[in-house]
Amino acid sequence: MAAEPPSSPLPERLIAHLDMDAFYASVELLRYPELKGLPVVIGGRREHAPRLREDGTREFAKLRDYTGRGVATTSTYAARDLGVFSAMGLMKAALRAPDAILLPTDFDRYRHYSRLFKAAVAELAPVIEDRGIDEIYIDLSAVPGIREPVGHDPLGGIRSVAREIKNSVLRATGLTCSIGITPNKLLSKIASEIDKPDGITVLLAEEIPARIWPLSVRKINGIGPKAAARLAALGIETVGQIAAAEPAWLIEQFGKSYGAWLHEASHGRDNRPVVTFSEPVSISRETTFERDLHAVHDRAELGRIFTRLCEQLAGDLERKGYQGRTIGIKLRFEGFHTVTRDLTLDEPIADAQALRRAAGSCLKRVNFDKRLRLLGVRIGNLSHPGDAPPAAKARKTARGASAEAPSGAARPETLPLF
Ligand code: DCP
Ligand code: MG
């Protein structure tokens, strides 16, 4: 029998990016299956939870009845078809999809499902980098069988490992995800979006010109709205146009590190390893007072404490080598009522003054009619100052407590402020 022609060798590294489909919304559909296929938006307050009618059916809140300043954390694909996306103001969303169902955000539940899907993947492929609540990178390079062709398909082993991972996630959670598998993290992050939802996309280096170059520059994780606008002003809209540009010109326009990175990224080159140790999600400092303090009467003292917390946090950041984009505060009032607020900046910060400024602006969104017993400052969305480019997802700005303005007596107060 004639020898089979050697198939082109698979790359040394096979990296997957797995991203859950419409994650928060899909978790909600697990408990409200009657909403399947309907436009559903997540981002309401507790009062928007469905009510059980006497006949056992549920009555859901409609987007048209929403008032307030909350934003959508995510939406089902049916709602996206109507033009409602993550981070959109809910009142604006109501204009586009008045009949869409509105549900409150239930972070604890999403965190629970996040742990479940990651554990399910870890049983099959343990080299996992945690990238947040609904996405991970997985190093599949050494997974048994992955390099074996299936029939005439040299990528058959890769596809069947991907299918196994997806099945295992589905069994553990009832949820679907999309997977991209390529030689590196940069390409896999792009690839996982190509066939969303419930997709598998395998992409090798030789396919970059055909499949990556036609894409918008925004598909590259690390090209945010600002860089994209600057590229557009230079006449560059697609990844291929970056690839066609002279590296020296890119460096001239964007500086040495970002310009060089743009060139590498547009050619799909990325050597970053899958980092399995978990980086801290956030770093915080807090203090409980000896006696409860009042925002007006004890203003000076509170101001001093607040400044010191920011200085300590800045010290922590420096020692550990981090900076961050999301700054949050935590306040506990007498009676143990706890309030958090946060704010996501465009650029990461690390020094005490910038922290104080950002945390101070969060304070403006708090009502101070009770005495305080605890004050805390937190920084999240962390990166390392040397990182190029910032790894954070610029579009994910609506997470956490700040996704919803304080309910009820939500009067944005400017005073008292300490
Ligand atoms: N999220 C958020 N605020 C945003 C974007 C996202 O709170 N501005 C939350 C809700 C999402 C989850 O993070 O469900 C995951 O974000 P993705 O960008 O992966 O969006 P989805 O999983 O909802 O949809 P997709 O199917 O496009 O991945
Ligand atoms: Mg997702």
UniProtKB/TrEMBL annotation:
<comment type="subunit">
    <text>Monomer.</text>
</comment>
<protein>
    <recommendedName>
        <fullName>DNA polymerase IV</fullName>
        <ecNumber>2.7.7.7</ecNumber>
    </recommendedName>
</protein>
<feature type="domain" description="UmuC">
    <location>
        <begin position="15"/>
        <end position="224"/>
    </location>
</feature>
<keyword id="KW-0808">Transferase</keyword>
<dbReference type="InterPro" id="IPR022880">
    <property type="entry name" value="DNApol_IV"/>
</dbReference>
<keyword id="KW-0460">Magnesium</keyword>
<keyword id="KW-0515">Mutator protein</keyword>
<dbReference type="InterPro" id="IPR024728">
    <property type="entry name" value="PolY_HhH_motif"/>
</dbReference>
<keyword id="KW-0963">Cytoplasm</keyword>
<dbReference type="Pfam" id="PF00817">
    <property type="entry name" value="IMS"/>
</dbReference>
<comment type="function">
    <text>Poorly processive, error-prone DNA polymerase involved in untargeted mutagenesis. Copies undamaged DNA at stalled replication forks, which arise in vivo from mismatched or misaligned primer ends. These misaligned primers can be extended by PolIV. Exhibits no 3'-5' exonuclease (proofreading) activity. May be involved in translesional synthesis, in conjunction with the beta clamp from PolIII.</text>
</comment>
<dbReference type="GO" id="GO:0003887">
    <property type="term" value="F:DNA-directed DNA polymerase activity"/>
</dbReference>
<feature type="binding site">
    <location>
        <position position="19"/>
    </location>
    <ligand>
        <name>Mg(2+)</name>
    </ligand>
</feature>
<keyword id="KW-0479">Metal-binding</keyword>
<comment type="similarity">
    <text>Belongs to the DNA polymerase type-Y family.</text>
</comment>
<keyword id="KW-0227">DNA damage</keyword>
<keyword id="KW-0235">DNA replication</keyword>
<dbReference type="InterPro" id="IPR043502">
    <property type="entry name" value="DNA/RNA_pol_sf"/>
</dbReference>
<keyword id="KW-0238">DNA-binding</keyword>
<dbReference type="InterPro" id="IPR050116">
    <property type="entry name" value="DNA_polymerase-Y"/>
</dbReference>
<keyword id="KW-0239">DNA-directed DNA polymerase</keyword>
<feature type="site" description="Substrate discrimination">
    <location>
        <position position="24"/>
    </location>
</feature>
<dbReference type="Pfam" id="PF11799">
    <property type="entry name" value="IMS_C"/>
</dbReference>
<keyword id="KW-0548">Nucleotidyltransferase</keyword>
<feature type="binding site">
    <location>
        <position position="134"/>
    </location>
    <ligand>
        <name>Mg(2+)</name>
    </ligand>
</feature>
<feature type="region of interest" description="Disordered">
    <location>
        <begin position="385"/>
        <end position="418"/>
    </location>
</feature>
<feature type="active site">
    <location>
        <position position="135"/>
    </location>
</feature>
<dbReference type="InterPro" id="IPR043128">
    <property type="entry name" value="Rev_trsase/Diguanyl_cyclase"/>
</dbReference>
<dbReference type="InterPro" id="IPR017961">
    <property type="entry name" value="DNA_pol_Y-fam_little_finger"/>
</dbReference>
<dbReference type="Pfam" id="PF11798">
    <property type="entry name" value="IMS_HHH"/>
</dbReference>
<dbReference type="InterPro" id="IPR036775">
    <property type="entry name" value="DNA_pol_Y-fam_lit_finger_sf"/>
</dbReference>
<keyword id="KW-0234">DNA repair</keyword>
<dbReference type="InterPro" id="IPR001126">
    <property type="entry name" value="UmuC"/>
</dbReference>
